[in-house]
């Protein structure tokens, strides 16, 4: 639990395009270093709870829900983009951390947000950011990820998924199957079991903590689906490798799970190679959800970066 001297305050920040972002701050606001935590796609700021509990009371910590996630407003049409996330981060820093040193730590889409910040607001990065922690993320080529499936199997599944999502496609399912699906949707139990299994396999390494899987599912359910779809499409054009050069003056570490199916190891290696002076750390038998699977190690890296 959070100690009394780590009391957290939660409120909203209004972006320049009128979107309310849910923001939570903890620690002394006049601390010399502020840590800004950025969550991943279909997660929310609560994914950082285990890390924040261990960070200590001497750091000013700012975290928030990306647009379309958690308690923030849905992303207006055309704004569910990585570029917009970079602009949102710039506004969060400008409004909530107007002075002092900044450490950025981003998980998955949060790391992509950091790259977008560097591309669109390079002066903010070079002048304010003293350290960067990229956790289980990617600088591009996400369209080539097969989620651990053999390429022929992935192509077949992807083709079926595209066909299913086409408008005006009629299903030939028997009446009994339709009734069974309706019953399942009413109770939600079967869907929950399936979703739990998919999340365990796709996002975590072996033997994940059950509570962490449940929390991840809850965050997914708390994401605006239209916004999530927009960001998912944006991943296909996400190519920000060159922007990483702007972190040359910051202490940078790239953390990756050996068994990450969403942002595989070669993506972490690309980031480390493109960022001058970056250190690459690979955790064995670990999946994508580093804030849950490697809480202690991730916290230690953030504290080290904030020194």
Automatic annotation (TrEMBL):
Coiled-coil region list: none
Molecular function as annotated in GO: catalytic activity
InterPro entries: AB_hydrolase, AB_hydrolase_1, AB_hydrolase_fold
Pfam families hit by this protein: Abhydrolase_1
Protein name: Pimeloyl-ACP methyl ester carboxylesterase
Species this chain originates from: Labedaea rhizosphaerae
Domain AB hydrolase-1: 34-294
């Amino acid at each position: 639990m959070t100690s009394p001297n780590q009391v957290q305050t939660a409120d909203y920040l209004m972006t320049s395009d009128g979107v309310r972002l849910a923001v939570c701050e903890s620690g002394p606001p006049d601390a010399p270093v502020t840590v800004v935590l950025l969550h991943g796609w279909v997660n929310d700021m609560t994914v950082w709870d285990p890390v924040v509990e261990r960070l200590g009371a001497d750091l000013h910590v700012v975290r928030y829900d990306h647009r379309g996630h958690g308690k923030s407003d849905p992303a207006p049409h055309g704004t569910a983009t990585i570029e917009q996330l970079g602009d949102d981060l710039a506004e969060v820093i400008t409004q909530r951390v107007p002075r002092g040193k900044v450490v950025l730590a981003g998980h998955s889409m949060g790391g992509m947000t950091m790259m977008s910040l560097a591309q669109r607001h390079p002066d903010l990065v070079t002048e304010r950011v003293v350290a960067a922690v990229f956790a289980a993320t990617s600088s591009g080529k996400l369209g080539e990820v097969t989620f651990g499936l053999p390429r022929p199997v992935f192509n077949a599944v992807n083709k079926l998924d595209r066909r299913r999502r086409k408008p005006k496609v009629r299903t030939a399912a028997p009446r009994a199957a339709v009734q069974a699906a309706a019953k399942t949707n009413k109770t939600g139990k079967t869907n929950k079991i399936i979703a739990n299994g998919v999340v365990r396999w796709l996002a975590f390494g072996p033997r994940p903590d059950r509570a962490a899987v449940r929390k991840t599912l809850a965050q997914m359910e708390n994401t605006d689906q239209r916004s999530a779809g927009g960001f998912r499409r944006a991943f296909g054009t996400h190519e920000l490798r060159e922007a990483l050069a702007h972190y040359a003056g910051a202490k940078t570490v790239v953390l990756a799970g050996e068994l990450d199916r969403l942002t595989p190891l070669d993506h972490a290696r690309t980031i480390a190679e493109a960022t001058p002076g970056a250190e690459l750390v690979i955790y064995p038998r670990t999946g994508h959800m580093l804030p849950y699977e490697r809480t202690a190690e991730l916290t230690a890296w953030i504290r080290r970066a904030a020194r």
